[in-house]
Amino acid sequence: MIQYYQNDKGTFAREICWLGIVLRRAEIVPLEEKRMIEERLAIFDDLMEKDPKMMRIRAEIEARGEARGEAKGEVKGARMMVLAFVQMRFPALLDQTRKKVKRVTTADELKQLFQQLINAADEDAARSLLT
């Protein structure tokens, strides 16, 4: 395999990666042989790490993770904003508000709720927004 792919390290790295995946899923290969083969495949880890395709895949995965983390942080901040406002203006509705904000999953919905609560004329109007 090394001789066959000697001029194409990227393809060689991907083939080694696939070989490792197939090996880990194979049930017919005895465990001790799997360990021995995986030790030999580990030699090529650096080659796989530097493969442009593998680097692109890793970057895409990291970007998606960061985006999810940012979205979760935005939702958490919006929840805290709604709760702080209700605690100041309508403290009797705090428990009901906690339940409502747990059900809301997007920051936009929470911001909209916040705007509606700001415009609520009284506690009864706020209560109707929380049901």
Task: Give me some keywords for this one.
single chain, 131 residues, mainly alpha, 2 domains, 7 helices
Model regions low in confidence, pLDDT < 50 over at least 5 residues: none
Structural class: mainly alpha
Oligomer: single chain
Strand content: under 5%
Mean of the pLDDT scores? 88
Count the DSSP helices: 7
N-end to C-end Cα span: 65 Å
- C-alpha Rg (nearest Å): 27 Å
What is the string of SSEs from the N terminus onward?
Answer: HHHHHHH
Largest sheet: none
What does the model show?
This protein has 2 domains: 1-50; 69-131, no CATH class. Helix 1 (9-25) packs antiparallel against helix 2, helix 4 (52-89) runs antiparallel to helix 5 and helix 4 (52-89) runs parallel beside helix 6. 78% of the residues lie in helices and 0% in strands. The longest helix has 38 residues, at 52-89. It has 7 helices and no strands.
